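Raw record, unedited: RNA polymerase sigma factor
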Amino acid sequence: MTHLDSDHQILYKLMDEYGNDVWNYAYFLTRNRDHADDISQEVFIKVYQGMHTFRGDASTKTWLFTITRNTAFSYRRSRFFKQGLLGGRIASLDYPVEGSSAAKYSTSTSPSAETEVMEQQYADAIWDIIMELPDKFREVLVLSLKYDMKIKEIAELLNISEGTVKSRLSRAKLKAQKELRRLEE
C-alpha cells in the first residue's frame, strides 16, 4: 500500500466517523445548509492536506471542530457568504440525524403519525429556540449537548477559559428553558 492510499483511507475513515458532526457544526455556525456543505467539503480538503500536522494534543473531534470553526469564520467574512445571506432564512433542521444520540430513543413499536408529527414539531421548536440564541451561547450549548464535548474540550476549541464555558453554558440553558416554558404556556 502506498503512502497516498494510506492517506485516502484515513480521510475516508474521518469523513465516515465525523462527517455528520462537521456538517452539523458548520450548519450551527452559519445557519445555512448550502454554506455548511461548502464548509464541510473545505474542512476535509484541509484535513487531507494537513493530516500529517496533527500532533494529537487534542482529540480528533476537537481538531476537526477547530478546523471547521476557523473555516466557517473565514467563510463568514468572505464576500460570497455575505451575498448569500441577503434574503436568506434559517432552514428547518431534520433531526434526529441517523446515528445521533436522539435517534437512540426510538422504540420498537411504531408511534402514531399524529405522535410523530407532534414530536417533530416539538423538536423543531427546541432547535428554533437554540438557533435564536446569541452565537456565543448557542455554540457552547450545541457542543455540549449535541456533541457531548467536555468543558475542557470546549474551552480548548473556542480558546476561552473553562469558567467562561461554564458561565455561557449555564446562561444558554437558562435562556433556552425560559423560551421553551414561554412556548408551552
